[in-house]
Specification:
Layout lengths: L2 E5 L4 H12 L3 E6 L8 H5 L7 E4 L5 H11 L3 E4 L6 H6 L1 H22 L4 E7 L24 H20 L3 E6 L2 E2 L8 H13 L6 E3 L5 E2 L2 E2 H12 L7 E3 L5 E2 H12 L3 H4 E3 L17 H7 L7 H24 L1
Parallel strand pairs: 1-2, 1-4, 2-3, 4-5, 5-6, 6-11, 7-10, 8-13
Antiparallel strand pairs: 9-12
The protein binds NADP nicotinamide-adenine-dinucleotide phosphate (NAP).
Amino acid sequence: MKTAVITGITGQDGAYLSSFLLNKNYRVIGIVRNASKSNVKNLKYLGASDRITLIEANLLDLSNIIRILDKNKPDEFYNLAAQSSVSLSFEQPIGTLEFNIISVANTLEAIKVVNPKIKYYQASSSEMFGKVKKESLPVKEDFVFYPVSPYGISKAAAHWLVVNNREGYRLFAVCGILFNHESVLRGSSFVTKKILNTAVKIKMGLLNKLELGNVKIYRDWGYSPKYVEAMWLMLQQEFPKDYVICSGEAHSLEEFVQKVFEKLGLALEDHVVLDTGLHRPVELEKIYGDNAEAKRALGWNYDMSFDRLIETLIKDEIQYIDYESKLNQI
Ligand code: NAP
């Protein structure tokens, strides 16, 4: 039985990855910042909370990580913990840089000290590419970084720490450069979750208005449960290498909202309010990636169209709202 340590296990990807690895018969250990206060609702929803071990640790404290690795002897380490919101990174630039960079440096250092054979996955992001000229799209693995947010800058620094450790110390350390991926477990501050949750509640007569910022941005959206499979595949390869994980299509946020409302039979103009106060200081206008290398080398099979993604997200959101309301009645 292999052992995997996952940081950020309480988040969207952490929960889906746990569930995926448990199905592959892994022993799964999750690192959380505060075991007594940790929000395990995502893990509970997927039926994974009773099958994993949670360990409290401060990823900014190297000695703490060394002890955990020494004691639990993992084969694989998935580093998903991060201040993951682009918007929040403009409000908390220093905290974002500090955590998103130092936690990566620490976990890599700990692996070098305890066991350099532990395979390491880092959650890199398409936000590292940032400002990309339209004629250069789609983005591939070797593209230059021009991040436009403290979040993107922090992820770019963390990315290079991984590459540097791989090249300098021959660690099996890789970065998955993931484009936006969504699910019902997406945090409530993310725009896609806000759209889906509000739209379904409008349909149910529970809410009436949806406030949005800039809807003219184009993103490459995918489905989280399928993206975590690529993380695992990257650690099963003979040689460590970074991959772009994306759907390969760009759609505007406007189109995202329109499709959700259309599929729910709602009229946009009756409910959606645009608010320039919600715009970011700097915005990445259009970005999408090329997943050919991930499909070819990893055998990652992603074929979910944008239409099917929206249908799946709506269906999942309806089920989730039903689950939550039943929980609240208990
Ligand atoms: P998420 O739902 O926001 O989860 C973030 C996780 O990080 C949570 O478990 C959170 O723990 C933990 N965390 C945050 N700050 C922490 C801190 N100071 N100390 C310890 N733990 C902390 O994010 P996600 O969508 O699953 O994304 C997983 C990773 O992929 C992140 O690194 C994200 O930046 C990256 N990524 C995501 C996307 C995407 O579209 N989802 C795309 C590219 C890259 P708490 O429960 O304690 O808050």
